[in-house]
């Protein structure tokens, strides 16, 4: 069964670590085309555009995808939902203080980190097919397969393996940068 991502809009709060969705009706997801692409091909960012300066995609074989916010007042950032085991040790979300197992990854200007999706929403967007890369300004993701992706931004990069349900983070802004695998 394929899961479709649905954008949840919170008008009076913060969505996905500061990603506002002003003016989008959360009860009627924006229909976007899902177009097949050849392997190792950059895709047209316009096909993944949601409006309000935001782009999104989802993987074809797992409940994972990303929301790009390149045009923010503070800095470009990316919010990615990933399917990690709920039995993983809890983390303390940097933005909210909520203690729970991570279910997302954020890349911003300063760092890349696991997070807790406090909006409990998911994303709408076309499928980013195997070998395809979506780049919007300084943010980029490549679908390594229908289950896995690798994403980069100003604060670092991560790889998500949907089959193993793990994330490997490389924080390129830290003086002690190195891989930080989680399961």
Summary of the model, kept short:
This protein is an all-beta fold and 183 residues long. It is built from no helices and 15 strands. It is 0% helix and 34% strand.
Plain-language structure description:
By secondary structure, the chain is mainly β. It has one domain. It is 0% helix and 34% strand. It is globular, with a radius of gyration of 15 Å. The N terminus and C terminus are likely disordered.
Shape: globular
Total of domains: 1
How confident overall, as mean pLDDT?
A: 75
Report the structural category: mainly beta
Number of helices: 0
The total strand number stands at: 15
Q: Tell me the radius of gyration.
A: 15 Å
Strand content: 25-35%
Question: Reading side by side through the largest sheet, how are the strands ordered?
Answer: 1-10-11-12-13-14-15
Oligomeric state of the chains? single chain
Largest sheet: 7 strands, mixed
Poorly predicted regions? 1-39, 175-181
- Note the run of SSEs as H and E: EEEEEEEEEEEEEEE
Give the terminus-to-terminus CA distance: 24 Å
Helix content: under 10%
Please specify the SSE layout and strand pairing.
Elements: E1 41-42, E2 49-51, E3 54-58, E4 65-69, E5 77-81, E6 91-92, E7 99-100, E8 104-107, E9 112-115, E10 132-136, E11 139-143, E12 148-153, E13 156-161, E14 166-170, E15 179-182
Parallel strand pairs: 1-10
Antiparallel strand pairs: 2-3, 3-4, 4-5, 5-8, 6-7, 8-9, 10-11, 11-12, 12-13, 13-14, 14-15
